[in-house]
Amino acid sequence: MKQTRRLLIYSGLVLIALSMIIPFLWMLSTSLMSELEVYQFPPRFLPSVLKWSNYLEAMSLQPFGRFFLNSMIVAGASVVGQLTFCSMAAYAFARLPFRWREKIFALYLSTMMIPAIVTIIPAFLLINTFGWVNTYWALFTPTVSSVWGIFLLRQFFLTIPRDLEDAARIDGASEFTIFLKVILPLSKPALATLGIFAFMGSWKDFLWPLIVTNRIDMRTVEVGISNFSNLYSTDWPHQMAAAVVVMFPVIIVFIFAQKYFVKGITMTGLKG
User: Fold this and answer.
1) DSSP assignment, residue 43?
2) What domains does the chain contain, in order, with CATH numbers?
């Protein structure tokens, strides 16, 4: 009975894994096809000849060098901003006593229920008023802080024993020193998690860069990929090739940050 149940569970997990990896494999296969093979019926799952030239052509048909630079600047600013501002706000909500702290935090948290699409027009009007359209300020300013990031770090800060802070205060440490030298080093797992999500959210953002930029030299990679589609047709091989290339920085960042995630848990070794 247990073996049958285990077999069913593993079979279900394999099906779930396949459902997630098949779209990626289809994208990879399409990126190596010719345009005729893409529209062939019945559909082909594997290209007859691997067209590696699709990747070079995709990178040359659009200025992806500039797109990558823009996305790296925006994603980097987003990560640095969220790690900085979210951690300071989270520390204030978790440790600093002030009037109506919990009520303000609950009110701040309630803004997560507002759909992001609702705030796009007011945000664009503010950006336009400041004259930031077609600038990096317009691209990364809305992403340098997030309610979810503050919530995540606050909940993690609450699990850190206060005895460590009291010991630092006895040694004469200021509140900022405690935050910088005690809280942040013990919060590497949460900081790594927030950094990964901030990078991914900024890197894959499509709608906001499309709205606040109309010059091709200020476009990001996601908007650049969409340039392979027009009103009448889509250049699927080159679009999929560009999508595969654009995906690699996210994978690299995840692998790099994952080491710090595990290392942070090992070094912390504390339970609240």
Assistant:
1) P
2) 62-268 (1.10.3720.10)
